[in-house]
């Protein structure tokens, strides 16, 4: 299984003739956004109570800008930090769901694993695009999975927190696509990807 995931990452990182690194990163972010939205749909279908209860709350992930007007590279570095936090949250979701229900093998679980692998790959891509001599970027998850989920205990709290994490993933995947598109325009001098 891990070997298949490694092959997926390697296969996605293989240079495509005529494609720039920034163009591939934009494509990857757009694909991640699509898959995150699909993951949320699968979750809503699995957890039918969500049609009556939509969790509220602000952003879970909110990286701090280095300056008031960050450069595009600094924006990608901030994005990278946010994506690391998202990966940490996704790892927590997986861990907590498996603790509660065991390892399941359905469409939701398969898509959840795909999103995790895709997000890890996007972290490697943003690291390659935004790392500088002065800045070292990590790709490991940036979140400790040791606190209560959203202050609410029990299975219901876990389900509501999971929903919020999935919404957060969609938000940051969209931000990634937008920010990386701007970087692509700056570096490649074209809107075409």
Detailed description of the structure:
- This protein has 193 residues and is mainly α.
- The chain is 66% helix and 0% strand.
- The chain contains 5 helices and no strands.
- The chain has helices spanning 2-13, 21-46, 72-101, 107-130, 154-188.
- Helix 1 (2-13) crosses helix 4 (107-130), helix 2 (21-46) packs antiparallel against helix 4 (107-130) and helix 3 (72-101) packs antiparallel against helix 4 (107-130).
- The longest helix has 35 residues, at 154-188.
- The chain is globular.
- The model is unreliable at 1-15 (pLDDT under 50).
Features:
193 residues; mainly alpha; 0% strand; disordered N terminus
What is the H-and-E element order? HHHHH
Number of strands: 0
Mean pLDDT: 84
Our count of helices gives 5
Structural class: mainly alpha
Q: Determine the N-to-C terminus distance.
A: 32 Å
Residues in helices, as a percent range: 55-70%
Low-pLDDT residue intervals, each spanning 5 or more residues: 1-15
